[in-house]
């Protein structure tokens, strides 16, 4: 799976569009036959009420809280994501460049996701609370963000045993990978880099800067299993130590 419009054309009127009466000679203006006068168009329009085609309410006019439970069909989501991947694939030089661009596109989506979620939480609660601890933020991404974007929560969240600054969000059946067939020459490609960009934007927006990447970790029962690797910046760990 997730976005150039053609420039509007300018219509030019040629000189031939002027009335042919301008090109008549003076002698031709004195006609021998009188034509019946046609009724004025303006007079007809003034007596008839022409219905105006007024469009319905725009999507931007809908209240954000009422559209919270709105869903997008999987076919539309898969089609849009497929077009994004194909468009990006034609403009890159390799797998790393393709994943980087997908990550950038996902980051733009994540910025809007975190803004929308924060606005809804502040408008629906009289005492909105901002999370300042790392674990509650990761749990929110694992459940609320995943459900808001993909319609379901992620399957697991783990902490790295070797590195204290690394956390992993695991999705056994990611929606992004469900309708994408990766060719053999691109077997190392993970289109979930788009998801990694969303997670990175949410963490940055909440004040937990990190570098987020996507890795394919298939299992026998879950062929599309994907791990979103979160590598936090040193400042986040230092702040966490102050809360202990």
UniProtKB/TrEMBL annotation:
First-listed, main subcellular location of the protein, grouped into a coarse class: endoplasmic reticulum
InterPro entries attached to this UniProt entry: NO_sig/Golgi_transp_ligand-bd, TRAPP-I_su5, TRAPP_component
Compartment list: Endoplasmic reticulum; Golgi apparatus, cis-Golgi network
Keywords from the UniProt entry: Endoplasmic reticulum, ER-Golgi transport, Golgi apparatus, Transport
UniProt KW Heme keyword: no
Chain intervals with Polar residues compositional bias: 40-50
Keyword Nucleotide-binding: no
Region (Disordered): 1-64
Gene Ontology, cellular component aspect: endoplasmic reticulum; TRAPPI protein complex; TRAPPII protein complex; TRAPPIII protein complex
Full protein name: Trafficking protein particle complex subunit
Species this chain originates from: Coprinopsis marcescibilis (Agaric fungus)
Lineage: Eukaryota, Fungi, Dikarya, Basidiomycota, Agaricomycotina
């Amino acid at each position: 799976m997730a976005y150039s419009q053609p420039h509007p054309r300018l219509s030019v009127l040629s000189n031939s569009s002027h009335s042919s009466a301008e090109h008549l000679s003076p002698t031709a203006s004195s006609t021998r036959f009188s034509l019946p006068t046609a009724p004025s168009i303006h007079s007809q329009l003034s007596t008839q009420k022409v219905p105006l085609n007024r469009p319905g309410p725009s999507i931007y006019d809908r209240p954000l809280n009422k559209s919270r439970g709105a869903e997008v069909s999987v076919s539309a989501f898969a089609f849009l994501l497929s077009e994004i991947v194909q468009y990006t694939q034609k403009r890159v030089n390799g797998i790393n460049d393709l994943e980087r661009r997908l990550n950038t596109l996902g980051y733009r989506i994540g910025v809007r996701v975190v803004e929308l979620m924060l606005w809804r939480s502040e408008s629906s609660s009289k005492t909105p609370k901002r999370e300042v601890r790392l674990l509650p933020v990761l749990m929110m991404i694992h459940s609320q963000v995943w459900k808001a974007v993909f319609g379901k929560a992620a399957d697991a969240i783990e902490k790295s045993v070797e590195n204290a600054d690394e956390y992993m969000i695991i999705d056994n059946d990611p929606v992004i990978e469900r309708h994408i067939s990766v060719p053999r020459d691109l077997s190392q490609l993970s289109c979930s880099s788009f998801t990694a960009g969303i997670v990175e934007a949410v963490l940055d927006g909440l004040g937990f800067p990190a570098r987020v990447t996507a890795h394919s970790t298939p299992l026998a029962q879950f062929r599309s299993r994907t791990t979103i690797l979160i590598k936090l910046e040193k400042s986040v760990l230092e702040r966490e130590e102050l809360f202990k």
